[in-house]
Amino acid sequence: MIALLLLSSTVVSFSYVPGHLSRARFVAVGYEVGGRFVPETEGHASPNVPIPTLHAHAEVRRLFGSWDRFAVVERGVQADLLVVVRTGESGGVFFKTGVGGRGIATENGGRSRSSSPASIDAETPSHEDTLSVYESVDGRFGRLVWRGQLRRGFSFSPSPLFEKLREDVDALPRQP
Hints:
This protein is an alpha/beta fold. The chain is built from 5 helices and 8 strands, in the order ααββααββββββα. The termini are far apart.
């Protein structure tokens, strides 16, 4: 039981493309809806977005805005990185697709093992807060470059999830 409590409170992070995190300059904060990136400003207009999620987005946006490493932009097509904030209260089922037989990143940090040219995975929501960073490919999700999960990861200011991302990125050498 104690081991389960410890596991549920740890931040799980990984970097598939640390070099991309070093080169990126512009980030867009938003939601993942039906496998596509929806900018934060569009999500605020939806009555279906829970209040804790709205607060988490505002906090992450504020923290990115005060960090001299990145500039926050409004639209995904303007960004090098797409940042997705999901609180444990978000609910729903999330779908991700992968192309090219390399598999896709899944919520628990694993990869789909499909050898077909395209694969589809479904995820049920987590009770943990999640901060995910993707490479932006013309405003669409590219490779997952960082992800952290933590129960109540956005419940404090500054967000422990954001602080872990910041620690991981600041440890990388800056690249032009």
